[in-house]
Design a protein that fits this description.
The chain is α/β, with parallel strands linked by helices and 250 residues long. Helix 2 crosses helix 3 and helix 4 runs antiparallel to helix 6. It has twelve helices and eight strands. The chain has an eight-stranded mixed beta sheet with strand order 1-2-4-3-5-6-7-8, with helices on both faces.
Length: 250
Amino acid sequence: MYIRIDNRKIHYKILGKGSPIIMVHGWGGTLYSLHPLALHASRTHTVYLLDLPGFGKSDNPPPHWGVEGYADLVYRFITTVNIEHPIYVGHSFGGSIGIYLASHYPTLFTSLILCNSAYKREMRVSFTARVFKRIPSSFRTIVAPIEPIVKKLYYRLFHKSSDLMRYPHLEANFRKIIIQDLSGEATKITIPTCIIWGENDTYTPVVWGYELEKLIQGSRIKVFPQTRHNLPLKFPQEVWGEIAAFLSTH
């Protein structure tokens, strides 16, 4: 199914019947990323899945969008489709969106489920940035026009699987998102929150999960041993079991 929000086509799907759950995929995913998890949830809930703008069958976002822009789109989707007080499940970047929405709209969700959520980033300086920083300032203005070309060549040669290379149409959005830290927003969350993490996650280290538990008052964390960032994609039955157990007590 499709819906238009601000003249932007959004692809979505509804499964099951019961109290509502919205599941939001991570950066680079589509609604089908969390589809296996949604199938388990749909036995007792109505599950809403959507392709975030720029992914799947949804239209691209404007280049100025960061977390706020994507969060506003999800908020508009919820209110337009008339999903009343859903449970929110977000994986990776979808968790970032959930943190932002739960902190700014405290009555929007009944519960918040955050799976391997990328709520902050490691501020690493790229190789090309280090090289250009060493260039004398008097000469830097001369070579500045070729810096973007050098960066793209570097990523093409050494980081072919990076998000910048895989989704070049979202480069402006990605560069904005990776410098956003949602730790402050997390401290404002007041709804019941379950944090689910993979022990061996190298993209969002498990220590971030424990930090997030401290930031969100009353939250609880479940760490799955010997699992990675794709935890809810690879082990949907086990993840849903943990979510269902949490929801049964809240």
